[in-house]
Give the backbone structure.
Amino acid sequence: LLGRIATWGYVVAASQYRGNAGGEGKEEFGGADVHDVLNLIPLLESLPQADTTRIGMYGWSRGGMMTYLALTRTDRIAAAVIGGGSSDQFDGLKRRPDLEKSVYAELIPDYANNKEAALIARSAIRWPEKINKKTPLLLLHGSADWRVHPTEALEMVSALYKSKHPFRFVFFEGGDHGLSEYQEEVNRQIKDWLDHYVRDREPWPSLEPHGD
């Protein structure tokens, strides 16, 4: 998808999280590695063809968690897209106990002695008010996603609504984790979102009750 986004006229930058594929440092699954996302901003500022007053962000699955985390630390993002996003590590652990050993205990520093705090810090559903409200969110999720259960998305939508965060939620009936059956529709949704709020800088409509 990143290549497709580039064909829409966007400068695309992405990072390989530290400690992966032979990279330096240690993977922390939502710890200090969030800086590997945020540091793309000064990288973009070094590219003359990039307009850094109009930055969008895109993250899928674990990348969705990283997007939520990044948006607690910057107001530079004009709009973001989160697909199959992980927002509740407690729910994920309950449904997939294998994550305890294969992900959390292996990657999160001092996890054994700091389990609850570590999972809260990586669960956006616990702190929706910290996500920068200047950044409207497009959430995409499939109803048949077994990797990140659909209830995570539904509960996150409820939390965003209660915190009056601007968002749009598209729920794909029978869609898997990667929404493989809906690629054309997913691409259209993402392009429309980025074009509207990043390229064209359109304002977000009023979230207050109004109309007839």
Summary: The radius of gyration is 17 Å.
